[in-house]
Amino acid sequence: MDKMPRWADVILVPLINLVLAFLVSGLVVLAIGENPLDAIYFMLKGALGSTQGVGYTLYYATNYMFTGLAVAVAFHARLFNIGGEGQAAVAGLGTAIVLLSFDWPHWAVALPFAIIGAGLFGAAWAFIPAYLQAKRGSHIVITTIMFNFIGAALMGYMLNGLLKSPDTQNAESIAFPAGAHLPTAHEVFATFGIPFSKSAPLNISFLLALGCAFLVWYLLWKTRLGYQIRAFGHSEAAAKYAGIPAVKITIITMLISGALAGMLSINVVMGEQERLIKEFVEGAGFVGIAVALMGRSHPFGIVLAALLFGVLTQGGFELLWEMPTISREMVLVIQALIILFTGALNNMVHDPVERLFIRLKKGKS
Amino acid sequence: MGSEKIEGRQDTAAPAIELKGISKAFGPVQANKDISLSVNKGAIHGIVGENGAGKSTLMSILYGFYKADEGEVYVNGALTSIPDSQAAIAAGIGMVHQHFKLVENFTVLENVILGAEEGGLLKPSLAKARSHLVELAKEYELDVDPDALIQDLSVGHQQRVEILKALYRHADILILDEPTGVLTPSEAEHLFRILANLKEQGKTIILITHKLKEIMSATDTVSVMRRGKMTATVKTKDTSPPELAELMVGRKVLLRVDKKPATPGKTILEVNNLRVIDEDGVERLKGVSFEVKAGEILGIAGVAGNGQSELLEVLGGISTATGSVKVHGDEIDLTGKHSDGQSRRARGIAHVPEDRQRLGLIMDFMAWENACFGYHNDPKYQKNAFVMDNAAILADTEAKMEHFDIRPPNPRLPAQSFSGGNQQKIVLARELDRNPEVLLIGQPTRGVDIGAIEFIHQRIVELRDAGKAILLVSVELDEILSLTDRVAVMFDGHVMGERITSETDEKELGLLMAGISEGAA
After folding, report:
1. What pLDDT, in 10s, does the model give residues B449-468?
2. Is B353 on the interface with A (CB under 8 A)?
3. Average of pLDDT values for B153-175?
4. For residue A231, what are the contacts with CB-CB under 8 A and spacing of at least 6?
């Protein structure tokens, strides 16, 4: 069977999906009496029109890269990890514990330990559903969702008790020591003499996310473990024939997935908030599912999809500001339409485009 | 409503089915190219061809599953459009599929009227069908208990229900797609008696098969298809199996396997009292014992589903069992930590599974990724403890592709882009390349074209001559008879009997396959 060229599958089809999503969103905007072109203009300007906008956009994109990669790694083993939200939250606990334990002399020293803390806690939160799936056959979609709630409850408990800052009424920890502050984009660019918004939360976690994307690619397509993960994901029966240990692969994959979701806390807790607050994940765990879907579970696609969702998030906030008739729910509708078209309705575009390519090719030969 | 189709007997000149210039393409694949075919009324017309030659596509067009891109269909001399199976039935065409389309927990009667019920209440339809069924059964030797549940019937009886369904819908033209694939030899004989009966009553039968023997014994005329084209239509009595094989493949084919007599050495594989109970608590293997010596091929014959698959899975480390299996006298772990596929491979057991697409290959993986599948832990494929040496695997795959003549010789194509025969060669190249002590091989040539069958059989014999033990499971008796040195017949989870291949014949094995063991001498 013939297929369309790879570039069409990876670039053209998502692009058409996106255009369709924008067209339908445009109709929605039109229906409430606003000009859709204006809406797009405000969104793009808000997301990309200033260094502050770019700073926010890339900050959100960093989160989505982490959670998107987490979903994708699990998905390669045909495990649907819906628990990125909870794993990231619990990882925040790990980050906070590490950063509050010492008076860190320098961020470069603190960062590796924070990564280990976040990774371990995130992985630990994924371990229990993984174990239940591998050994008991409890469906991982159900257990990871449940663990999101348990994770949220655990956070609330810790932030109202053991970790609660005595200086405030809010459920949050005390601030991390100054030596644990990650360099922001403003500081990094300043060393090169380039001005960048001081208020934007973008920090060097962005580079960590790009690094993680590369590592995930290397893991999946270059290592023996990745080979086994992909084989297991494609066909459990064949994996059994080959003697690939199902329990081990399931658990290891979920540990990696949980640790990746946990990296979000480096960006948000360590990089931006510089203390642990409640509900810092803000739904990024779920957006990661859409990002992984749109990125076809490939790290490169995930980076691109995360950037797009970063634009949507930041642009959406700006749109709220610029167009008062557009409510927060409206922005959610637009984002949901994009997820719907790029994820759920992908085949609607994919199959006709493929047929078109095959017909073109046949016409030529 | 009441007016039935008038039998067009007076117009004997017009053929029952005439196809003119039928073409059908799926994407870039031309499944049928300008096919013309004429099937005489009251004849049994065979259609042979390799897998993928386009037989099934052609019949699907005739039965309304596919729409032809070009061409015309004439039924009894009249141009007929067949957009769906309802139209096919209305035109008097009935089809018995390879995989039966029956509702397992319905009775025979309920299945027969399914889709042909009249009115809102079932009772009158059932009563009408019952009397009709009795007539049909008498007329054509098609006796089945109308009140039996399908799931309680043997495969042969289920097939009769399919034929009854077609006849109940007044089919004058019956298409049978590989009807004997799942039957024992005696059931197959009964089927051909039924077909002869139907022919005598003026029905037209189109028989699709890849078994040349059936063509020779049952048909009046035979058409050969190759690569989407109709290459020849000949009178059966004027042709021979070698000629048909040549027409199918396009070159001369060795139908016999060229091999020397075996010189068995000491025992390598010993299987003792093997028992398997599946998830539903059903005993699939009920104490199976046999041994395979160095330099011999032991065939496991039997109708599909009598425990052969379970046997291969246990020996290959896919499922667990009780009993004992020894290789070179050393016990093998059947339930514990070392009962997985990796441990089996470490003990020199290679396994070419029955279902290569489900087990033996990852269809989305590229050929080179499949070429190390199962041996991915081998140090020669590793750069270090974590990283695979993809370049080495690629080079290794290229060598294998040349050695086994795998086409196209591109290691970067996904497994699903290869034909059935070449997929099988990928698995075979991988497993034989290890020079295993024991080779387990299930249905070595299922879905493989005749040209590749020859090649695969030669490789198996080569391994035997190198002094290895080979356990070959096949439902094709011809393959068992021509390739193996000894044969064990399985029935209902038992080994019914063992024979020296050269001293037995199809008839004796057929009885054992049906579970009849008297006359065991």
Report:
1. 777 888 899 999 999 999 99
2. yes
3. 89
4. A238, A239, A242, A244, B362, B365, B373, B376
Question: Are the Cβ atoms of A234 and B363 closer than 8 angstroms?
Answer: yes
Mean pLDDT, residues B368-390: 95
CB < 8 Å to A245, chain B: 340
A235 neighbourhood in chain B, CB within 8 Å: 358-359, 362-363
| Residue with tokens 């037995």, as numbered in its chain | B504
Residue A18 above 90 pLDDT?
A: no
A278: containing domain: 53-319
Our CA-based measurement puts residue B350 at a distance from the nearest CA of chain A, in whole angstroms, of 10
Residue B200's contacts (CB-CB under 8 Å, 6 or more residues apart) are none
Please report the residues numbered 204 through 263 in chain A whose beta carbons come closer than 8 angstroms to any beta carbon of chain B.
Answer: 222-225, 227-228, 230-231, 234-235, 237-238, 240-245
Containing H/E element for B439? strand B438-442
CB atoms within 10 A of CB B139: 12
Note whether A176 and A270 are within 8 A (CB): yes
pTM, whole model, 2 decimals? 0.81
Where do the structural domains in chain B lie, given as residue ranges?
A: 15-92+172-251, 102-169, 254-348+437-521, 356-435
**Whether B359 and A237 lie within 8 Å, measured CB to CB:** yes
As a whole number of angstroms, the distance between CA B193 and CA B177 comes to: 17
**Per-residue buried b or exposed e for B359-381, using 16+ beta carbons within 10 Å of the residue's own CB:** bbbbbebbbbbbbbbbbbbeeeb
Pairing of strands B267-277, B229-235: unpaired
Residue B3 · residue B25 · CB < 8 Å: no
| Distance of residue A208 Cα from the nearest chain B Cα, in angstroms | 22
Residue A48 lies in a domain: no
Please, are residues B436 and B468 in contact by the beta-carbon 8 Å criterion?
Answer: yes
Determine contact: B336 vs chain A, CB below 8 A. no
Q: Does A31 touch chain B (CB under 8 A)?
A: no
B389 touches chain A (CB under 8 A): no
Choose among B27, B29, B362: nearest Cβ to A238.
B362
Is the Cβ pair B382, A240 closer than 8 Å?
no
A3 interfaces chain B, CB cutoff of 8 Å:
no
What pLDDT band is residue B13 in, cutting at 50, 70 and 90?
low
Max mean pLDDT among A10-24, B60-74, B320-334, B503-517 falls in B320-334
Assigned architecture for domain B254-348+437-521: 3-Layer(aba) Sandwich (3.40)
Asked if A243 lies within 8 A of B386 by C-beta distance, the reply is no
Interface test with B, best of A224, A234, A297 (most B CBs within 10 A): A224
CATH of B15-92+172-251, one of 3.40.50.2300, 3.40.50.300, 2.10.109.10, 3.10.290.10: 3.40.50.300
Q: Which of B476, B494, B495, B498 has the alpha carbon at shortest distance from B485?
A: B498
Q: Is B288 helix (H, G, I), strand (E, B) or coil?
A: strand
Closest CA to B73 of B87, B61, B56, B60: B61
The helix/strand/coil state of B245 is helix
CB count in 10 Å sphere of residue B13: 7
| CA–CA dist B407, A223 (Å, integer) | 28
Rounded distance between C-alpha atoms, residue A295 and residue A301, angstroms: 4
Phi, psi of A172 (to 5 degrees): -155, 160
d(CA A234, CA A253): 14
Cα–Cα distances in Å, from B200 out to A256, B18, B197, B221? Answer: 70, 21, 5, 16
The dihedral over CA atoms of B214, B218, B223, B228, expressed in degrees to the nearest 10, equals -40
Q: Does A106 touch chain B (CB under 8 A)?
A: no
Give the closest-approach CA distance of A283 to chain B in angstroms: 33
